[in-house]
Design a protein that fits this description.
alpha+beta, 13-stranded antiparallel sheet, 7 helices, disordered N terminus
């Protein structure tokens, strides 16, 4: 009996020793971050995370950025290679992820438009073009004034918004004389004109033309999937879509950042991504408002345009709203930063991040404690965005309850104007 007991103890010791040897032979997971052929690590925080870095292609910088120690973007410069290598976007943000300022550039290096923020809300936006300079003024984040001054200084267009009175006043001057002073509905309606090159809303020559509403009742949704850039344009409509061919190219559609505040908010939070981000969401198109029977009005306006095209375009712009689309939009972004250089380790963490985000959205069982330990090694955040003002800068989703609450607010909210589609006055 003593012999049997001794053998069983020996067997147990052998198993334990074998187990320990197995664990000792497993190499530790390499969470280190270092430079690669396309990425240069310029500086690190004490915890090993990236402080400064640069992505490059064939020696040319593509993205230069700095992270705060908590993982949020501190600053970033983003470059494009078409039509030539150039800096096209630059952002600066606070440690609690509020925007401080942003600048966008033309391919020739000239400043295109810039935005200054106050307490995380837009304060002043300036747009520069060959036609002139436009200054957008915001009050508590709401657009209150648009002032355009022509490059030659001979004309101005000023739109003052009165939220309480639900109207906007448009005053246009030429050579020191007022050529138009009219009040319109606060929200631009079908027929309202615009200076397309500077996004300046002006007068509505169509007056009280009768319109119709075309019902669509179309919905689209997509589960989060890995995408190269945090570009939500496939889930949302540009607020102003002008009468021109649009080719998105291989970088952010910065032309939409001028007037599509939700789009500007997103791309300035995620100007740089590491091996992709998770993006998913949905949109509901309720329908659009459009002209019903306005051929007589159009013919009349075409005659006025032919008689004095310069004065007409000064008062009513070169394009007008042909359709106003209504609906709802939402999307979620799961951004990951400070991924280890080891590709196998990075892919494993990305897979864990996807499972975690899926659990937040679906309410199903989440990741294991061991997987959570791995995910904690990097910066990962899920945010919910929508056309509701409270979701414009995104809300952090930490639980399935957070996601459910955000979706319920979207469903309960009113329909939004999701796109103003324009047509050239040359087509009158």
């Amino acid at each position: 009996m003593f012999k049997k007991h001794y053998l069983s103890l020996l067997l147990l010791a052998t198993v334990l020793l074998s187990s320990c040897e197995k664990e000792d032979n497993v190499p530790p997971i390499d969470y280190a971050i270092g430079s690669t052929s396309h990425f240069e690590l310029l500086d690190q925080h004490q915890n090993g995370w990236i402080k400064q870095g640069r992505y490059q292609l064939s020696g040319d910088p593509m993205e230069e950025f700095e992270y705060y120690e908590n993982g949020y973007i501190k600053s970033a410069k983003v470059y494009a290679s078409y039509p030539q290598q150039h800096l096209y976007m630059e952002v600066s943000r606070s440690e609690d992820n509020k925007p401080l300022w942003s600048k966008y550039y033309n391919p020739d290096g000239a400043l295109w438009f810039e935005t200054e923020y106050k307490n995380g809300l837009p304060s002043i936006k300036k747009v520069y073009s060959e036609a002139g300079t436009t200054i957008y003024t915001y009050t508590n984040g709401e657009l209150s004034l648009v002032e355009f001054t022509a490059a030659d200084g001979n004309s101005t267009a000023t739109t003052t918004y009165d939220i309480a009175g639900e109207n906007r006043n448009v005053i246009i001057t030429s050579n020191g004389e007022t050529v138009l002073d009219e009040n319109y509905a606060y929200r631009e309606q079908v027929g309202a004109g615009i200076y397309a090159d500077s996004h300046v809303p002006v007068a509505n020559p169509f007056g009280a033309t009768e319109t119709s509403y075309y019902k669509l009742n179309q919905a689209f949704s997509q589960s989060p999937s890995w995408q190269h850039d945090a570009d939500p344009i496939s889930f949302m409509f540009p607020y102003r879509l002008f009468d021109e061919f649009y080719n998105p190219g291989n970088y952010f559609a910065t032309r939409f950042a001028v007037s599509t505040e939700l789009y500007q908010s997103v791309i300035e939070q995620y100007p740089v991504t590491e091996r992709g981000v998770l993006i998913g969401g949905g949109k509901y198109e309720d329908g659009y408002e459009y002209f019903q029977d306005n051929w007589e009005v159009r013919d009349s306006l075409a005659k006025v345009l032919d008689e004095n095209p310069g004065l007409y375009k000064l008062k009513y712009g070169g394009e007008y709203i042909e359709k106003a689309g209504y609906g709802k939009i939402f999307f979620v972004i799961g951004a990951i930063r400070n991924l280890p250089t080891d590709s196998n380790v990075a892919d494993d963490i990305k897979n864990i991040a996807r499972k975690h985000m899926d659990a937040l959205i679906s309410g199903r069982t989440g990741i294991t404690p061991r997987e959570q330990e791995k995910l904690d090694r990097v910066w990962f955040e899920v945010k919910f965005f929508s056309t509701l003002k409270e979701h414009r800068d995104g809300v952090v989703i930490n639980s399935a309850g957070d996601y459910k609450n955000a979706i319920e607010k979207v469903n309960a909210g009113e329909l939004s104007v999701i796109q103003l589609k324009y047509k050239s006055v040359e087509n009158l």
